[in-house]
Amino acid sequence: MTASTAGKTPAKIYNMSILHLLFGTCWATYFLSYMGRLNYAASMVEIGADMGYTTSMLGLVATIMFISYGVGQLIGGILGDYLPPKVMALCGTVVSAACNFIVAFSGNFTLLAVAWGVNGLAQSLIWSPILRLFSMYMPDGVLYKSLVNIQSSCALGTCVTYLLAAGLVAISGWRTMFFVSGGLLAAVSVWWFIAIGKVERFSASLPAPVSATAAAPAAAQADEPAQKGSLWQILWSSGVILTLIPMAAMGVLRDGVMTWVPEYAVGSFGASPAFSIFLTAFLPLLNLSGVYAITPLRKKMSNEQHIAALMFGIAGAAVAGLVLFGGKNLILTILLFAIITSAMTGCNTAIISLMPAAFTKWGRTSASGGILNAFCYVGSAVSGYGIGLLAEKAGWGAAQVFWLASCGLGLLICLFVAPWWKRFKEK
What is the pTM of this model? Predict the structure, then answer.
């Protein structure tokens, strides 16, 4: 789809083989995007040991990436409602592959920081186009299942990244991890261009009235209506503006915690870098419980804000356990971290995946998803450098207090916004 066809409603697809191709391609692309983004966090301890960088320097690189990713989500999400999703995501994967190759060859801190900042911008071009492609071509029944199921790519992508990094760090050093990530991103770029092109051609070959047939209800037909609603009015009337604060808190707890688990294990328990990375790799597998808890929860709690509040409460209880018992046993500490990140993965699914689908009728799926995701990475950015500096100056106990405060803030605001969001959806 191009800008010149922006006024034309894409035909919904009911052919399951084409829908599987669309979902599988988006799943694989997002899976590998995680590898090309989290490989730095997974290799960070070894990079510091090899290059002589301090904890705060390593955290600064993570923060630069989180900031660039968040800014890119904000801009790319808004542009994503107008620009071709196939081209946007293709640019993201190609540039991200190049940045990974540059880091593999980097020999100084400045080059590492700049390349990883550009990588954040490139990676920000991938999620919003996926949201838009789903809402454009998938019928409602398939859409909501796909929005939940694609979250498994995040968990598995994170798990594979940490396991692969642990193995490569132990065998051949951290640079190999970036070579592998760059090569896989380059390969998936080619597949994305071919597969999404096939999906677009299939939709274009369908008769225009297909979305008005009995098989496709008229109320579910358009991702791009003839007239878009005012973005900021829609975000305000839905309560999404206030939801940006819990999203930042979620970034602190999800990406911030994942970033620092290996360093926490090394600093608090004297674990080796390779072993700490290996243990961290199992967190994302447990995070899948947070993803798939959303489907049964949504049947009992139709309000995504209530689901998010529950997830913040669970994370808060785990952080409290970390404060009380986390310094006593490494395995217990990793399990508590797993509960925190699993709950925040469930919160992510409820708000960043499911909520934007409610904006399809206004043609604002990409913009709402991008803005929500952007503020998640505001929290990630604060946590990247801030937690490293806080742990360096005041110890990990101070970091735990910060995480606990983030849980409380997220819970309270989600409960406050819940009636607001309920009225918006009913309206």
Answer: 0.73
